[in-house]
Write a structure and sequence with these properties.
Oligomer: heterodimer
Largest sheet of chain B: 7 strands, parallel
Helix content of chain A: 40-55%
Radius of gyration of chain B: 26 Å
Number of strands of chain A: 17
Strand content of chain A: 5-15%
Distance between the termini of chain B: 72 Å
Distance between the termini of chain A: 55 Å
Chain lengths: 512, 464
């Protein structure tokens, strides 16, 4: 089977759907790989790099589309590219099916099987194929770098001879993959980070990254079963706006990442918020391409407001990094679909049936909702502590009861024994009991790693039973006692000699 | 001829040396001295006995010891560490056999007949008990050897009503005891023979009813019995050294049994009397999902990029004789500056402490071989865990699947680390017969094939 990677034709797109490393993986999966000439140019990958990795180079896009069975792309194919494709081909790319129904119709009409990488369900099994996550991770990181670029001060606090430098205060709105990546990057650069999200389940994640979780008084959980957030109530939104106004007066950098699938991004930062910010503040709006979280954001532009606030509506794609991760996501999906040898489109597979938006001439959108991996029911930690304490107390009581009973039985046994046994026996019995106690104490101290040598040594010293044989041997062979004793001495000695020798052999092996 | 007083003093000194010998095993450094103490103690005991009064037939004694020494030396030199459990089992059976023989000998001994009524009764009871324990130890250990060597099937032999039958047999033995004690002279021999036969049978059935997975417990249990048999012989002969030594060995075996049972989270009684688990057909929750497989080159990459590695070996590693290439891998990684440690589960292997010896044999330094309790806390900070030839001891079902037969058993929590690589020959289940959810986790990959081959291949990639 052949996999083809054409050059991206959308203006401004610098990524490519494969890198030399992913080409190697595809070859290992059994595919033949063909890459359009200069496809990787804007991501700093040359044709030679691809050739060394084992790919063929096609002179133009037409050649790629003509001979490939599977097409890998970043941006969706447009009309001109569809014209070069043939029925039965599979294409993997971003598609945004909800916003591009007419494109889906064109693809279906031509019999092309299109996979929308942005429609891959957010389940744990599909994490390795999730391009939204891998790209959001890059965006989150980059947002902080760009913010620091436009921001006029250090991000970290310092005490220098020339004076004290206050750390920057960063507010991250939306704690999804991009938000968490932004939090992490900002923290590592030394800023004070606060984060807000309508979903209460992310509080723990935010705090684990060292940021402060901001919340409003209203008790409303914005999480839905799909893991995305939902549209909040009017009261909640009012409280949210009030919180942001308070924050705007203090915060130096705002990074917003709030998106709702299939709709325009929610407007969270209104004009009066921006007006309240200090001059020199920066807002990086990661939702710029779907309308922006800030009303003043201009997609693909960086603007400065009248009061000196920089609003960043475009971000460097980090094309080399992004191409690598995106390419990996594609490889994982192809791996899941059977690699070259067993490639098949299994519409019963949870991932394929949601991401394969056109199949066999039919449109497969929208899909049924899929819940994220089920969460464990939350147990109140306080309750848990109480039950645990009760259990422990009950076990202790049972144990002390048992000990009392056992001691009582032992006492009765001793008494009865004293009545029937001759004094000599009691003497031996005393020795026996004391020896058991000594043995108990001594053996518990034996290092676990030496338990096998312990068994060997005890084998050896239990050969002490040789004494019985020694005492019973008689002078002549015809006496049965002699024969019995002979055998007893024989086997006991094997224990002694063999036991000590093998113990010694084992102990010699241990070295530091 | 040395006097009885000197003999007693010598026996006391030997007891002290034996106690010190066992105490020496608290650390690797003091252990070697401990063995020396044991040898000296044994030598003193034997010499002072032979040189005492009332000992005859010195020539037979010397011949027996000489022949046995040759056998003992040959066996100790040649035995493979993987066969240690079998050797230990055989040595247990010898103690049992010796106890039985000494018991018979004591009964035949004319001195017995000269004892007063009460003394004779007590003495005969001691003989009876000594032979009883000895016989069970003797045959039980032979069956244990058979199971360990693979000559007897590892599945437990359970039949309905076996508890009643065993109890019945013990009751018969008690009846025999009464008749034995009441018989005059040596007329009680037949009763002794019958009891011995029954006890041998009980010993066989006892161990046949235990599954191969529980062998560490069984061997420890028989270790304990061999001690009690020796102690009983000590009562029989009125010899305190035998009693003390027997008690030491008995406690040792008992402690090891307890440790093994705790490590499997099963009660001692259920192991001895129940076979494996309360419901032999218990099955865990169905495990579904994807199993990711990997190859040697990828694993080598993972290891190259890791800072901390933990290796969890199971008995399968020993069977594949993979510990030698593993040592090379460990050296290789440590030279590259990585932290490499081993995590040993208490019941890994067929004997307590078995894995430690196998690793020591491969020259692995003992300070990087850690117990489960010591390493579990460090697993979340570990980058790569290699699970080699182990299954049930890394099964998360033991913690969260209440229907699993191994629920409650302490396990090595390898899934908490960054990545897990499981080396297995196939997806077959372990002793517990349950699938392992660990294999289906996202951060686990399977490396199929023979452990030794796999490690050798990984080593080549690590060197490239």
């Amino acid at each position: 089977m052949k996999v083809g990677i054409p050059k991206e034709i959308k203006a401004g797109e610098r990524r490519v759907a494969a890198t030399p490393k992913t080409v190697k993986r595809l070859l290992k999966q059994g595919f033949d790989v063909i890459v359009e000439s200069n496809a990787g140019e804007k991501a700093n990958i040359t044709d030679d790099d691809f050739k060394t990795a084992g790919a063929d180079i096609a002179a133009n896009a037409g050649e790629v589309y003509q001979i490939s069975d599977i097409i890998l792309k970043v941006q969706a194919v447009d009309e001109s590219e569809i014209a070069m494709m043939k029925s039965g081909q599979v294409v993997l790319s971003y598609l945004f099916p909800a916003q591009n129904m007419d494109l889906l119709e064109k693809l279906a009409a031509k019999g092309i099987n299109a996979v929308a990488m942005d429609a891959i369900p957010r389940i744990s099994r599909a994490q390795k194929m999730d391009v939204l996550s891998s790209m959001a991770n890059i965006a989150g990181y980059r947002s902080v770098i760009e913010a620091a670029n436009y921001f006029g001060r250090f991000l970290n606090g310092q005490i220098t001879a020339a004076g004290k430098v206050e750390p920057a205060k960063v507010l991250v709105i939306g704690a999804g993959v991009a938000g968490l990546a932004a939090i992490g990057t900002a923290k590592s650069l030394g800023a004070i980070v606060r984060a807000f999200d309508t979903r209460s389940e992310v509080e723990e994640q935010i705090q684990s990254m060292g940021a402060q979780f901001l919340t409003v008084e209203i008790e409303e959980d914005g999480s839905t079963s799909s893991g995305y957030s939902k549209v909040m109530s009017k009261e909640f939104i009012e409280a949210e706006m009030k919180l942001f106004k308070e924050q705007a007066e203090e915060i130096d950098i705002i990074i917003t990442t709030a998106q709702i699938p299939g709709r325009d991004a929610p407007k969270l930062i209104l004009d009066y918020h921006v007006a309240a910010m200090k001059p020199g503040s920066v807002i990086v709006d990661l939702a710029a391409s779907s309308g922006g979280n800030c009303v003043l954001t201009k997609n693909d532009e960086v603007i400065t407001t009248d009061n000196g606030v920089v609003i960043v509506g475009k971000l460097d794609q980090l094309p080399s990094q992004a191409s690598q991760l995106y390419g990996n996501n594609l490889c994982h999906l192809l791996d899941d679909m059977g690699k070259a040898e067993n490639f098949q489109i299994d519409m019963n597979d949870d991932v394929v049936k949601r991401a394969m938006v056109t199949h066999d001439g039919k449109i497969n959108w929208p899909p049924e909702p899929l819940p994220v991996s089920p969460q464990k029911p939350k147990v109140d930690p306080v309750e848990l502590e109480v039950t645990k304490a009760e259990d422990e107390a009950a076990t202790k009581r049972k144990q002390s009861r048992r000990t009392t009973i056992v001691l009582a039985l032992i006492a009765i046994f001793m008494f009865l024994l004293a009545k029937v046994a001759p004094p000599e026996f009691m003497g031996h019995f005393t020795v026996f009991v004391l020896a058991v106690f000594v043995g108990w104490q001594v053996i518990w101290n034996v290092s676990h790693s030496l338990h096998t040598p312990l068994m060997a040594v005890t084998n050896a010293i239990s050969g002490i039973i040789i004494i019985g044989g020694l005492l019973q041997t008689q002078n002549d062979w015809s006496n049965p006692m002699t024969i019995i004793a002979f055998v007893a001495i024989l086997v006991a000695s094997i224990n002694i000699v063999g036991g000590f020798l093998v113990t010694h052999r084992m102990l010699k092996m241990f070295r530091k | 001829m040395i006097s009885g007083q000197i003999q007693t003093a010598a026996y006391l000194f030997a007891s002290i040396l034996f106690i010190l010998s066992l105490g020496g095993l608290s650390s690797q450094e003091s252990a070697k001295k401990g063995v020396i103490y044991g040898i000296i103690g044994m030598a003193i005991a034997i010499l002072s006995t032979v040189l005492g009064e009332g000992v005859h037939g010195h020539i037979y004694i010397v011949v027996a010891i000489a022949v046995a020494s040759v056998i003992g030396i040959l066996v100790a030199r040649r035995v493979e560490m993987t066969s240690m459990p079998q050797l230990v089992a055989i040595l247990h059976s010898f103690v049992g056999l010796a106890a039985v023989l000494v018991g018979f000998g004591s009964y035949l001994d004319p001195h017995t007949q000269e004892l007063s009524e009460t003394n004779r009764n007590i003495h005969l009871v001691e003989v009876f008990i000594g032979v009883f324990i000895g016989a069970i130890t003797f045959t039980g250990s032979i069956i244990a050897w058979g199971k360990l060597e693979g000559k007897i099937r590892s599945k437990p032999l359970l039949y309905p009503g076996r508890h009643i039958i065993n109890l019945g047999l013990v009751a018969v033995c008690i009846v025999m005891a009464v008749m034995f004690v009441q018989a005059a002279g040596i007329a009680g021999m037949p009763y002794l023979y019958i009891m011995t036969a029954i006890a041998c049978f009980i010993g066989i059935m006892l161990v046949m009813a235990i599954g191969g997975a529980d062998m560490p417990v069984v061997v420890s249990m028989l270790n304990s019995y061999s001690g009690w048999a020796a102690a009983a012989a000590g009562f029989m002969l009125g010899n305190d050294l035998l009693i003390v030594t027997g008690a030491l060995v008995g406690s040792s075996g008992a402690i090891l049994s307890i440790i093994m049972c705790d490590a499997m989270n099963r009660s001692f009684w259920s192991v001895i009397f129940g076979g494996f688990g309360d419901s032999p057909s218990a099955s865990a929750k169905e495990v579904t999902g994807h199993v990711t497989s990997t190859d040697h080159e990828e694993v080598a990459e993972m290891l190259k990029n890791a800072n901390s590695v933990v290796i969890v070996p199971g008995y399968g590693m020993a069977v594949a004789k993979a510990q030698y290439p593993i040592f090379e891998m460990v050296e290789n990684l440590r030279n590259k500056g990585k932290e490499v440690r081993f995590g040993i589960h208490p019941v890994a292997g067929r004997l307590p402490g078995h894995m430690n010896v196998l690793l020591a044999e491969a020259n692995v330094p003992y300070d990087i071989v850690l117990e489960m309790d010591e390493i579990n806390d460090d697993l979340p900070d570990t980058d790569v865990v290699l699970v080699i030839g182990a299954n049930d001891i890394v099964n998360p079902g033991a913690q969260d699947d209440e229907s699993s037969p191994i629920y409650g058993m302490p396990v090595l929590e390898v899934w908490n680390s960054e990545d897990v690589v499981v080396m297995k020959r196939s997806m077959a289940t372990g002793y517990a017969g349950v699938q392992n959810p660990l294999f289906f986790k996202d951060n686990t990959s399977m490396l199929y094939g023979d452990a030794k081959d796999s490690v050798l291949k990984i080593n080549t990639f690590l060197n490239s």
